[in-house]
Amino acid sequence: xxxxxxxxxxxxxxxxxxxxxxxxxxxxxxxxxxxxxxxxxxxxxxxxxxxxxxxxxxxxxxxxxxxxxxxxxxxxxxxxxxxxxxxxxxxxxxxxxxxxxxxxxxxxxxxxxxxxxxxxxxxxxxxxxxxxxxxxxxxxxxxxxxxxxxxxxxxxxxxxxxxxxxxxxxxxxxxxxxxxxxxxxxxxxxxxxxxxxxxxxxxxxxxxxxxxxxxxxxxxxxxxxxxxxxxxxxxxxxxxxxxxxxxxxxxxxxxxxxxxxxxxxxxxxxxxxxxxxxxxxxxxxxxxxxxxxxxxxxxxxxxxxxxxxxxxxxxxxxxxxxxxxxxxxxxxxxxxx
Length: 337
Prior knowledge:
Blueprint: H1 3-27, H2 36-53, H3 58-79, H4 85-105, H5 124-142, H6 145-155, H7 157-162, H8 167-193, H9 203-216, H10 222-237, H11 245-259, E1 274-276, E2 279-282, H12 292-295, E3 317-320, E4 329-332
Antiparallel strand pairs: 1-2, 3-4
Helix pairs in contact: 1-5, 1-8, 1-9, 1-10, 2-3, 2-4, 2-8, 3-8, 5-8, 6-8, 9-10
């Protein structure tokens, strides 16, 4: 196995990392999309049309592919806002299949014959840049206030809403941002494989990214990275087994899912110590060690359900005590209805 044969594997690994991270951001608010391949196809088709038919430069075409993915993601978030679990997944699956059928019957983008004539513009450095951008965006989003709000919506939407978090805004932002990363990776991949087929938008392609996410771990940003790297490289490593390669590949996935239902990597609860082989990497942090500013941070206005900033309980006011005689006063709290 020489370096030339490993270069395509490395490029596809990096692109799979970017798409898996996009799916992770989308799933952060409880929306596990089954239309990842379709969103990547939207970005790929648009970028390819812009570079081939309109002569656009590669970088603006990538940006437009990411923007198209964000628009599709925001649309999916809006129509699935009241859906959960099986119905949500079924809706995204149907949407992806609908896009695949549309691409199959649209002659302008090649139809059943696929879209060809795309120039080779992607190399290992482009794929590496895409993976790093996706990792940085996912990492920053994961540790932000909006990321914590999305996890609250994922774990318990009712409790998150009671705390003042806007479920609609959290889900829309996470879906649109994750879809933008997927669209960006799809645009870059289209300029490496040089052809886009309607079959690339189907469910079975999306299933690969779901497996990457569940295999590596859904609770931490490094889970999809590990899952995408291992499961993209593993089939190449198992080539010596010949016809038994895919059997062993599936067996490894089944064993990991049975032994580690939450994935290979899990999230350490906030405040607990992070250890590696018995050595403390990040010490534990108690509530007493946090500053007053950290404990009294106000929820951003963009995540609130309304614009009313009045506190739930104001300072007590004095009211006349009917049974205490003249001049006697008592206090009672005034609460907002």
